[in-house]
Amino acid sequence: MDLRKRNRQVTIKAPPTAQDALGQPTGDWSIFAPGIWANVQFLSGTETIKGGAESSTAKASINIRYRTDITTAMRVELGSTVFQIKAVLPDEQGKDGVNLVCEVIT
């Protein structure tokens, strides 16, 4: 990938590690990797009505430099937009980058 296309800075966050009495995660998401240069492309979006309420889903592909420490438990923030990572697709042949398949959290 042409590195000039990675023209947006995103922050990758890790989930909270503390748990409440029922074993549910509590606390804030922690910054795992700040200021990562990325190419963010919105792939599709849908709007539906579920249970009488409107629901929208936007899917995106976020390309970052090659690394092996990103998981689907993490999320990506671009300004006020938060993306849940659904799949991590590294370029194992050229080690050029990693595509993060994401959905916008609403």
Describe this structure in words.
The protein has 106 residues and is an all-beta fold. The protein has no helices and 8 strands. 0% of the residues lie in helices and 61% in strands. The strands form 2 sheets. Strands 1-4-5-8-7-6 form a 6-stranded antiparallel β-barrel. Strands 2-3 form a two-stranded antiparallel ribbon. It is globular and about 45 Å long.
Compact summary:
With 106 residues, this protein is mostly beta strands. 0% of the residues lie in helices and 61% in strands.
Strand content: over 45%
Oligomer: single chain
The main sheet comes to: 6 strands, antiparallel, barrel
Helix content percent band: under 10%
Q: CATH homologous superfamily?
A: Bacteriophage SPP1 head-tail adaptor protein
Overall pLDDT confidence: 87
Which radius of gyration do the C-alpha atoms yield? 15 Å
